[in-house]
Design brief:
This protein is mainly α. It has 15 helices and no strands. The chain has helices at about 10-20, 25-30, 35-65, 65-70, 80-100, 105-130, 140-145, 150-160, 175-185, 195-210, 215-225, 250-275, 280-295, 310-320, 320-335. Helix 1 crosses helix 3 (about 35-65). The longest helix is centred in the N-terminal third of the chain and has 31 residues, at about 35-65. The radius of gyration is 25 Å and the shape is elongated.
């Protein structure tokens, strides 16, 4: 978890759940010394990140058409991964401030706070760099643009984009993304590649109108644009040397993402078997053995004897009938059966 050098143990997560049930999570966070606060924050992060990935990151990456980012944290593009961590941190900080009442189901409570926590954090980050939090078309700017509906909407999109930390690949403005909306508003889709020249000219028109208020333009356009991260140039095709692969996430995060995906597959398979009338214990046992007994041991990307300790735990649990029975009971509780 970013921000702490101490590995988070199952006991830390259990302690957070107990604090939440007692209604003392926020109070404990506010009174904790730095070392204890780091561990507390790390435990909440461990509970939070799968929810953020499933409910915020995946739908967003689907809209962006990033199939690689949908696969898991270890495949996410750097900018998308940064955004994911920003969202998780926002929810964690929200929980450490707002979890003042008894919470029996921490994941359920966190799920209801995902949207307000991330939206507030997003607006706060925009405000810190001078970008308007809720961009609207000022009356003076609408007049300067002659009341043109598309130029007015383009102005709002420019204000929104100014507060986004990334660029559009190697370009400053996402002209290709704006082209489809331009066609909807104007009813005049440009032919061929003309949309880039047309949109580039229209962006310059809007920026010129914005510059008629120099102070406003400097604060809400120039300043946030100055915070954008420059894109990284690709390696030359004829490069004779190859860079060492950069590990974006730690092995335990890879394991967490893999097991979360397997859990989703298992629940779907169990639901399908139960829908066919199969005995719950038989269905769950069979699915758990197949999904976690075989797929969970896939560690071809690791050095020998450098696999996940969770895989060893799963193997032992599947071999113990009593522990397997508890797994069956837990699965039924999750499925509300």
């Amino acid at each position: 978890m970013p921000g702490t050098t101490h590995p988070i143990r199952p006991a830390d997560v259990a302690g957070v759940r107990e604090l939440a049930r007692a209604g003392r999570l926020a109070r404990s966070a506010s009174a904790a010394p730095p070392r204890d606060l780091a561990r507390l924050r790390g435990a909440v992060y461990t509970v939070t990140w799968p929810l953020v990935f499933a409910r915020i990151t995946k739908p967003l990456e689907l809209q962006r058409r990033h199939p690689d980012c949908l696969r898991g944290l270890e495949w996410m593009r750097p900018d998308c991964l940064d955004g994911f961590h920003d969202d998780v941190e926002a929810v964690v900080e929200h929980a450490l401030r707002r979890a003042t009442d008894p919470i029996q189901n921490l994941e359920g409570w966190l799920a209801t706070r995902l949207s307000p926590a991330t939206v507030d954090a997003h607006r706060r980050r925009r405000g810190e760099i001078g970008a308007l939090q809720r961009p609207r078309l000022p009356a003076w700017l609408g007049d300067a643009l002659g009341g043109d509906p598309w130029l007015g909407e383009l102005a709002v999109r420019i204000l929104l984009w100014a507060g986004v930390p990334t660029t559009a690949g190697g370009e400053l403005w996402p002209l290709a993304g704006w082209a489809a909306r331009r066609a909807e508003v104007t009813g005049e889709p440009p032919a061929g590649h003309d949309h880039r020249e047309t949109l580039d000219r229209e962006v310059r028109t809007v920026l010129a109108a914005m510059r008629t208020r120099p102070k406003w333009y400097a604060e809400h356009v120039e300043r946030p644009l100055g915070h954008k991260r420059a894109p990284v140039a690709p390696m030359p095709a004829d490069s004779s040397s190859e860079l060492t692969a950069l590990e974006l996430v730690r092995p335990h995060e890879v394991d967490d993402a893999r097991l979360t995906g397997l859990a989703e597959q298992a629940l779907q398979a169990i639901e399908a078997r139960l829908a066919r009338g199969q005995d719950p214990a038989v269905a769950i046992t069979a699915v758990v053995r197949v999904v976690f007994g075989t797929a969970a041991s896939a560690t071809l990307d690791r050095l020998p004897h450098n696999g996940s300790a969770r895989d060893d735990w799963l193997s032992a649990a599947l071999a113990d009938e009593a522990r397997l029975a508890r797994i069956v009971a837990t699965a039924l509780a999750v499925l509300d059966r």
